[in-house]
Design goal:
The complex is a heterotrimer of chains A (430), B (271) and C (294).
Chain A (H helix, E strand, L loop, with lengths): L1 H13 L14 E5 L6 H13 L4 E5 L5 H9 L6 E5 H9 L7 H6 L9 H5 L2 E2 L2 E2 L2 E2 L5 E6 H6 L12 H11 L5 E3 L7 H7 L12 H16 L3 H9 L9 H4 L2 E7 L2 H8 L5 E7 L5 E4 L3 E4 L7 H11 L2 H17 L12 H11 L6 H13 L3 E2 L7 H16 L5 H21 L1
Parallel strand pairs in A: 1-2, 1-3, 8-9, 11-13
Antiparallel strand pairs in A: 3-12, 4-5, 6-12, 7-9, 7-10, 10-11
Helix pairs in contact in A: 2-15, 13-17, 15-16, 18-19
Chain B lengths: L1 H27 L19 H9 L2 H32 L5 H10 L5 H14 L18 H12 L3 H9 L4 H12 L1 H17 L2 H6 L8 H13 L6 H26 L4 H5 L1
Chain C lengths: L4 H27 L2 E2 L7 E2 L3 H8 L1 H33 L5 H13 L2 H11 L6 H8 L11 H12 L4 H11 L4 H9 L4 H12 L1 H15 L4 H7 L16 H10 L4 H29 L7
Antiparallel strand pairs in C: 1-2
The chains are: A alpha/beta (430), B mainly alpha (271), C mainly alpha (294).
């Protein structure tokens, strides 16, 4: 025992259990939070900044944005210099005054905000001021399984979300055990369905008849395909990232999905026969919801000027093109196609898809990517709210209660509306 | 007949409890298209996952950090908790019951609400971004282990201690020369439990560490997960390979340590 | 032993308690009387947070879910761990191997475990339902049906019974063999031996595991959060069926940025746990025997 105590003391004295870090408040140091470096999109862009500013010590604290990590640091008045997070989350922090306005930063560096896609920028704009620069831009598209549809005598070109009763009939026709005919992707895609029915989920009442109708309709689609519990359990068996994904096995005929899934399909099942089509509103107009991350500078950051330079560099068109090229070359070295990079910077996208895009004959990418690209400017985004997470929880909870048959759509969304009001009142009280 | 019953029981246990680990190792050796195919044996066999993940992230550094932090945490927790537990088990004094109630009470408040204040304290001490907060609080004992070892000490026969006291042994001598050897299985259990707890703890490293060179393995695993799994291209085979790398040292430690859990029964030592 | 020497042994804990535990606990108690979003300084609001907690529907749901889980989890954990420990003790020379196997799930990283258990418990093609199928049962949708999510989580929690089993195993080997001999001479059946020799012999350890498992189980968080609320769970829609008390508290604190309200919730749970533990401690005086007291 005494030996152990000596050991503990030794550990304490030599400090080998407690290596210290060089202080983050040294000049020319940049600490980021929430950013990871999965591929060349990240590494090549960071390299661009490092090359332009070799004197700066950039410390990438890797890992997806984590509230506990960020808020502990903020509460201790020791925030990172930069934070990278989903725009919806950053918008909520902006509305609470936790991140700095970038108006001066943007002006100083001559950034043309017009280059950024409107929907993406809207997510980080609060009361007319910009609080973050958008990074990637994801959209949502319909992915149709041609073989499954044709086998059932359905022309993939005829499948759309424009005519809701026609879609419901299609589901009735295609529905059979061990196959999902159409997955409406609720609750997470409810904003898209509500928008297709003419309403924005933020800024409208959640018990608006058009929201209720969207909830009723999508829940009904699920009910007709076996009900939520077995529908979801069956969907969970899909090997989403495998060579035997649901489009290959024919377990799924159609669903709206985030655009990144095209790349997954192209990599893991390059020969699968799918059609990419836009999600449409009830008048037939293409429609998509934009999502993605943005860079922001927390209030109290030690090096706001350097941080500004960093986020301007990261989201600049030239930087994006450099990164896209590096990405393409890395994939080409492995003999893989490059499906392009969807950024929130319109100028960057134009150049990437003109100069860099290289599908190497992959049909999914060749046909799908132009569809996704055309949709970028049709994208909408919900306005930022200081109570964003509570609003999402309120409507998702409402949809869940309908899906599991515990409440009628009217009651569920009325309750959701009450919860949303309470959350907004609480935030307003501050 | 009885042996057949025991062995078939053990077989069921081995399958049921061994399966998750088998699944993990097997999936970590599959290629991307087959990670979740649930096949017992990896086909095609892709040991390259390990090479790739080792090349992509500094696993060796993280393992070294985890060993340092884990051993410091386990040593501190074992030594300090044993001392405190001995105090609770062997002495009668006013306020003992109340104080032990307070020990238990420290386990009852969800850590989510004390996390930020504790962080503020370490920040005020200027140590918030070092590895010290990951283990140093164990120097004061930890409620769970104090309770565990108190039960251990209470289970020791009183007569032995009384005899030693008659021989004039002081309290500290009773502790070091009698209680510690007699309770050695308990101390090893505490050491292993705490090493495992520190090894797998994510939340503290996530909050405190900012420099990748200081990351522990579990913090590094989050990087791997966000880079290759949820945040990246769904290269789950790499995430699982890193998970397996994180698990194997613990398995080896346990394999070595478990024999001491059951050795040193009371009667043997008294004889 | 009596006297002051005892205090010297407690000193490390007392110092640590005053330095690192009492302060944060008191701070959180004070925060429970404030609005605090961690971005701005706290703002005193009196008992508002507690008043709100009493009218928060989700608190009721979460508390019910948590008590339900604990009532199933703790007893089944004890029974299974006892059975395992008994079995492991008879494993002879392979004991080390089997002990390690039982402890394996405890050491597997939670991310891998959560992914695996969603596969194992899947209602459509999971291994658990396939197993039930051999006996002619049609298994439920453990991971998606609100009625079955909590029992599913209990089943999953049993995989980490290894820690408890290890403690029982260590305790079992300390029951003096003479007692079994004596009981056998009296003609006691194995069942009677278990009740009259084994259980009293390890009652101190059983008591410890019941108290500690109850405290931990009333704060259950990680597995359910990873499976149904974390990044993986974002695409799920299980709603409130897996909403445990600390998950609700955690989301209020870090997603809704309401640390003051979360602190009030935490102190509410503290009271519940303290009452439950006090009852257990009181009961233990009747059932728990220590070697040292004989």
């Amino acid at each position: 025992m005494r030996g152990w105590l000596v050991g503990v003391v030794a550990v304490l004295v030599c400090g080998c259990g407690g290596l210290g870090a060089t202080p983050a408040d040294a000049p020319n140091t940049l600490v980021t939070m929430g950013f990871g470096q999965p591929d060349e999109h990240a590494t090549a862009r960071v390299a661009v900044f490092r090359a332009a500013h070799p004197e700066v010590d950039v410390r990438i604290n890797e890992g997806a944005f984590d509230e506990q990590q960020f808020l502990s640091a903020v509460a201790a008045e020791d925030p990172p210099d930069l934070v990278y997070a989903e725009r919806r989350k950053l918008g909520s922090y902006a509305a609470r005054g936790a991140v700095l306005s970038l108006d001066d930063c943007v002006r100083e560096h001559g950034v043309d905000l017009g280059e950024f896609r409107e929907a993406a920028l809207r997510q980080v704009t609060h009361e007319g001021r910009v609080y973050g620069l958008p990074d990637f831009a994801m959209t949502r598209v319909l992915i149709l399984n041609n073989s499954a549809l044709r086998a059932a005598g359905v022309d993939p070109a005829s499948v759309s979300t424009t005519d809701w009763s026609a879609l419901a009939e299609l589901v009735a026709r295609l529905n059979r055990p061990k196959r999902i005919a159409f997955d409406p992707k609720v609750p997470e895609f409810l904003p898209l369905w509500a928008k297709a029915n003419g309403v924005d989920l933020v800024g409208t009442r959640l018990d608006d008849p058009r929201v209720v109708e969207a909830v009723r309709y999508t829940a009904e689609l699920v009910r007709r395909q076996g009900g939520w519990a077995s529908f979801k359990a069956f969907r969970d068996t899909f090997d989403q990232f495998g060579a035997q994904n649901a489009y290959v096995t024919g377990q799924l005929a159609a669903m709206p999905m985030e655009s990144w899934y095209l790349n997954t399909l192209a990599t893991n099942s390059p020969d699968v026969d799918v059609t990419i089509a836009p999600f449409t509103d009830r008048r037939g107009r293409p429609l998509t919801e934009s999502s993605g991350q943005a860079w922001a500078i927390p209030k109290g950051a030690r090096h706001p000027d350097l941080a500004c330079r960093f986020l301007v560099t990261m989201t600049d068109a030239d930087t994006w093109v450099t990164a896209a090229t590096a990405r393409r070359d890395a994939l080409a070295a492995k003999g893989k196609p490059y499906g392009g990079t969807f950024t929130a910077n319109r100028v960057a996208d134009e150049r990437i898809f003109r100069e860099v895009f290289d599908p190497r004959g992959n049909r999914i990418l060749e046909r799908g990517v132009p569809q996704v690209l055309a949709l970028q400017d049709e994208a909408f985004a919900l306005a930022p709210s200081p109570a964003a997470s509570e609003l999402v929880r309120a409507w998702e909870g409402g949809v869940n209660r309908v899906l599991t048959g515990r409440q009628s759509p009217e009651d569920a969304m009325a309750q959701a509306q009450r919860e949303a009001e309470r959350a907004l009142r609480r935030v307003g009280a501050r | 007949m009885k042996r057949v019953g025991v062995w078939s029981g053990l077989l069921v246990v081995a399958v049921a409890f061994g399966y998750p680990f088998w699944w993990l190792v097997s999936a970590s050796l599959k290629d991307r298209a087959h990670v979740f195919d649930n096949a017992l044996l990896p086909r095609p066999f892709s040991p390259g996952n390990y090479v790739e993940v080792w090349r992509a992230v500094p696993l060796t550094t993280w393992i070294v950090n985890s060993v340092a932090v884990g051993v410091a945490a386990a040593l501190a927790a074992t030594a300090a908790s044993a001392v405190v537990a001995f105090g609770f088990a062997m002495f009668r004094f006013r306020g003992r019951t109340l104080l032990f109630g307070v020990v238990l009470a420290t386990m009852m408040l969800p850590g989510a609400v004390t996390m930020v204040p504790v962080y503020l304290e370490w920040h005020a001490l200027g140590l918030a971004t070092t590895q010290i907060p990951l283990w140093a609080q164990n120097l004061f004992g930890s409620a769970f282990y104090i309770f565990l070892l108190r039960q251990f000490f209470l289970g020791l026969p009183r007569e032995v201690f009384d005899a030693a006291r008659v021989d004039g042994a002081g309290a500290w001598r009773l502790f070091t020369s009698m209680a510690v050897p007699l309770a050695r299985p308990g101390l090893i259990v505490v050491f292993v439990f705490e090493l495992k707890a520190a090894w797998t703890d994510l939340i503290k490293p996530l909050i405190y560490l900012r420099d990748p060179d200081l990351y522990t393995l579990s913090r590094g695993l989050k990087t791997v997960l966000d880079r290759f799994g949820e945040g990246g291209e769904a290269q789950w085979e790499l995430v699982l390979a890193a998970s397996a790398v994180a698990t194997v040292p613990m398995v080896l430690l346990f394999l070595v340590a478990q024999r001491y859990f059951v050795r040193g029964t009371v009667t043997q030592h008294v004889e | 032993m009596t006297g002051r020497a005892g205090w010297w042994f407690l000193l490390p804990w007392i110092v640590g308690f005053l330095a690192f535990t009492a302060g944060p606990m008191a701070f959180s108690l004070w925060l429970s009387l404030n609005h605090y979003d961690m971005l701005e300084p706290p703002e005193y609001v009196g008992l508002d947070n507690y008043r709100e907690a009493l009218t928060d529907d989700r608190v009721g749901t979460a508390l019910w879910n948590t008590l339900f889980f604990t009532a199933l989890h703790v007893p089944s954990q004890v029974v299974l761990a006892l059975a395992l420990a008994g079995l492991l003790r008879r494993a002879g020379r392979a004991a080390g191997f089997f002990r390690t196997v039982v402890y394996l799930p405890v050491m597997t990283p939670p991310v891998a475990l959560a992914a695996l258990f969603l596969l194992l418990l899947n209602g459509q093609n999971g291994a658990v339902n396939a197993f039930l199928g051999w006996f002619g049962f049609t298994g439920p949708n453990w991971t998606t049906d609100p009625v079955w999510i909590k029992p599913g989580l209990v089943v999953m929690s049993l995989w980490t019974v290894g820690s408890t089993a290890v403690l029982y195993l260590a305790a079992l080997t300390r029951v003096p063999p003479e007692r079994y001999e004596a009981a056998r001479l009296d003609g006691a059946s194995p069942w009677r031996q278990f009740w009259h020799v084994t259980l009293p012999g390890i009652s101190g350890t059983v008591y410890f595991t019941v108290v500690v498992n109850t405290i931990a189980s009333l704060q259950v968080f990680t597995e359910a959060y990873t499976m149904f609320f974390g990044a993986r769970g974002k695409q799920s829609g299980e709603g409130d069926a897996a909403l445990f008390y600390v998950i609700h508290l955690f989301r209020e604190a870090f997603e809704s940025l309401r640390m003051g309200y979360a602190s009030a919730l935490a102190w509410g749970l503290f009271v519940v746990i303290a009452v439950v533990t006090a009852v257990q401690v009181r009961l233990s005086r009747r059932y728990v025997h220590y070697e040292g007291e004989r």
